[in-house]
Amino acid sequence: MTDTLTIALPKGRIGESAIKRLKAIGLANNISPKSRKLVFTDNENIRYLMVKGVDVVTYVENGVADVGIVGSDTILEQASDVYEIMDLGFGKCKFSIAGMKDKELYKSDEVIKIATKYPNIAKAHFKKKQQKIEIIKINGSVELAPLVGLSDAIVDIVETGSTLKANGLSIIEDMFDVSAKLIVNHTSYRFRQKKILEIAERMNKFMESENNDQDTEQQR
Question: 0.85 exceeded by the pTM?
Answer without folding.
Answer: yes
